[in-house]
Structures are given as C-alpha cells and as structure tokens.
Write a structure and sequence with these properties.
This protein is an all-beta fold and 196 residues long. The protein is built from no helices and 24 strands.
C-alpha cells in the first residue's frame, strides 16, 4: 500500500525503500538519504506498481547517491532543495517510465558545493521549478523527457560535465544560462524562451 510519512524532525533513510504504493513525505522536518559510513554507494527509493509516485516535500541532503524510481506513469516530485551532506559530491537520478518529473527547488547550492550529477529520465515531461542547478566534476546534467520546461529564469552549471536535453525545451519567456566546459546538446526544438 501507500507509504505516508509526516516528519516533524529529520527523516534519515538508512537503507533502500521500496513500496507497492505511492511514497509521500511531508511535515516540518528535512530528509537525509543514506549514511556517510554505509558500504553501498547508492540509496534507492522506488515504487513497484504502475502509477505509484514519489513525493518528497522538504529539503533533501545526500550522504549517498540518490536514485528515485517511480513505476509506470507515477510522478517523481521534489519540492525542496537537494544538496550534498558532506564535501563528497553525490549524484541524483530521477526515473519514471512515463510520469512527470518535477524538481521544484534549487539543486547543489549548499555549503558543500554542486552535486556529482543530475539525471532525470522519463518518456513523460520534466519540470524545473527552481532557478539554479549546479553539478561539479564531469558527471554533468541530463534531462531526458518528452519536454523539459522551466518556470523561472534558470541557470545550469555543469562543471566539466555535459549538459543535455533529449526532448523539446520550453519556458514562459524565461532566460536560460548554461555554464560548463563540457558539451551542450539539444535533442529537440527549443521554443518560448527569453535569452539563452
């Protein structure tokens, strides 16, 4: 069934989480994925029933690489910021078969610098609601969806990694700034933007 978590304090997930229903986190507390001393390099949160989504309503810090996977048309929604828990950069991967992936906060803006990588993959749409996403090193950023849209002026900083969009790219006449010493790629039409 569905997993509903309302945390007033810090919620730390020390192991992988899998649910046949949706997973929804809310409340006043923040979220920590993984333990800095864990052997596994990743922590996964996943749903197994088609259409079951994943929602984290508060800010997330990563002690391990975070992999969030929703089954079928399940949406993946991160409402807060995502940052490294320590000086070791961590990766963030968001996956859905055909649901919407929404990143609504700034990513990689904490005192421990940019994430190692950001990857969003779905045959549905991707929505970027923050204003700044930063990765460091060569991990880069890849937004692989039917359409990627953003609602605010958006800056993507990729370090030495590539920044790529697989589908179309749209916005409500907002500006897009891309900064990287790696490659830039656009796999579909770019429309409705302000300055690039």
């Amino acid at each position: 069934g569905a997993v509903l978590i309302s945390n007033s304090q810090i919620l730390q997930l020390l192991g992988n989480v899998s649910s046949s229903g949706s997973i929804t986190e809310s409340g006043a507390g923040t979220v920590v994925l993984g333990d800095a001393g864990a052997v596994s390099p990743t922590i996964t949160v996943s749903t197994t029933t088609a259409g079951s989504g994943i929602v984290f309503g508060k800010n997330i810090t990563l002690n391990r690489d975070g992999v969030l996977t929703a089954a079928g048309a399940g949406n993946v929604t991160l409402s807060g910021t995502v940052n490294n828990a320590t000086a070791t950069a961590r990766g963030l991967a968001l996956n859905s078969t055909s649901g919407v992936i929404s990143l609504n906060g700034n990513i990689g803006q904490g005192s421990n610098g940019g994430l190692a990588s950001v990857n969003a993959t779905t045959t549905g749409n991707i929505s970027l609601g923050g204003s700044l996403i930063t990765t460091q090193g060569n991990g880069g950023q890849r937004y692989s969806g039917l359409n990627t849209s953003f609602t605010n002026d958006l800056t993507l900083v990729g370090g030495t990694g590539n920044i790529g969009f697989v589908g179309t790219l749209t916005s409500g006449v907002k500006n897009l700034t891309l900064t990287t010493t790696g490659g830039l790629s656009f796999g579909g039409a770019v429309s409705g933007l302000g300055n690039i």
